[in-house]
Amino acid sequence: MNKRIRPFYRLLALAIGSMVLAIFAPTVVQAADPVTLESLDATTKQLQISVDTTWVLLTGFLVFFMQTGFSMLEAGLLRQRGVVNALLENFIDAALTILVWWAVGFGIAFGTSSGGFIGTDTFFLSQLPVDGAFSNGNVPGIASQLNAYTLFFFQFAFAATASTITTGAMAGRTDFVGDLIYSGIMAAFSYPLVVHWIWNSSGWLGKMGFHDFAGSTAVHTVGGWTALVGAYLLGPRPGRTAWGKIPPAHNLGLATLGTMILWFGWYGFNPGSTLGTANTGLIGLITLNTTLGAGAGALASLFYQYKRSGKWDLAYCLNGSLAGLVGITAGCAFIAPWAAVLIGLTGGILVIFGIDIIESCKIDDPVGAFAVHGINGMMGTLAVGFLGQPELTLNKKAGLFLGGGFDLLGVQILGVVAVSVFTIAFAFVMFSVLNFIGRLRVNPEADKIGIDKYEHGATVWPDVYDHEEFLQE
Fold first, then answer.
1. Long-range contacts: 395-402, Cβ < 8 Å, 24+?
2. Which residues pair with 113 in a beta bridge?
3. Burial state string for 357-379 with b = 16 or more CB within 10 A and e = fewer than 16
4. Which of 109, 236, 409, 425 fits a disulfide with 195 by CB distance 3.0 to 4.6 angstroms?
5. What 8-state DSSP symbol labels residue 113?
6. Are 348 and 297 in contact (CB under 8 A)?
7. Phi/psi class of residue 235: alpha, beta or left (left: φ > 0; alpha: ψ in -120 to 50)?
């Protein structure tokens, strides 16, 4: 009996369910918003913003990872007695910069402009609307639909790079407290002021048509000139007697690892500066130009140094690749691939000349920071004025060698001169004050026992290279 009843109940339940669906389904369908062109457009825009946010964050992570590259490069090129000091300086620079950039630097760089020279708000990100802090397009000086926090992080990664460039040239004899002070000042004032001029949508250089896509001037020229002034005022490391060649690196394995990390990080530095993925062709061009510049720079330094010394020199090859990367950074979005090769080759030769010049001036730059970043930052920026492709430049003007006259080149020269003069003057005052208060050069005792032992009570190779062995040297 029960077996006969069960099929009946199942059929009854199915019938009731069908009736409910027939009654209420039309109401549910009518309640749903109809698909329109406007709704599709809004959905597409939101999807594009999501993709762009992911892109900028990922490339920002790559730029931040360049801190590791700088750390390893400096650790490899320095002598053993200063490696712990260099590692801590590179690490703490990132920690310090994020707080200073949040408090002051980001506002000066991208806040509402005063005359095109300085930002006046967005300090501590406090000007963002409380109820819409995660909404899009709310940074005064950046024409982007990305949210403020994504843009803040990406620009912070760039800011950390500028002061890290400086630590390399000043390694081995800088007071650690002095390093903290000048790194904080750079993140708060000198670097963001230049960024405001160039990258703020109301900046005076940017409005004149100055082209610096990812920072040959804004990042590398600023870092390079600051490094040179600091190294000059510091004086040489202890034990520098022979001039004409940088003392040998203590670990070329670390230096090579650091350089390869930097090259990898540059794929965030340059392509990420598109701040979006809408123009995939441009991203491809930037990536190609970046790689061509690095490769050409490495080969140019390798072969030129071989011609001079008869040796295949790894250290010069590494710096040559970095010189090519620095040189291509300004114009990676504005030039054709053949021009990227030319810029890389030029950078690879210039970095060797630059190291020779700095050595002849008896300025101790242990990693060749000014030759790599300062000289080639300026060269790469000027190269846009010579080789800019009219289909790619922001104002559709061609470079001098492509028939565009001096219009583009003249603005590039003006920008390089203005930034260089300002940075040199600012750095000279900053380091002179530190020197006056006794916070530029490390205590003379550190020159005797080694800066790692004096400042940190440590050595990078405690089981290989101890304090007593250094004193015997």
1. 395/209, 397/209
2. 119
3. ebbeeebbbbbbbbbbbbbbbbb
4. 109
5. E
6. yes
7. left
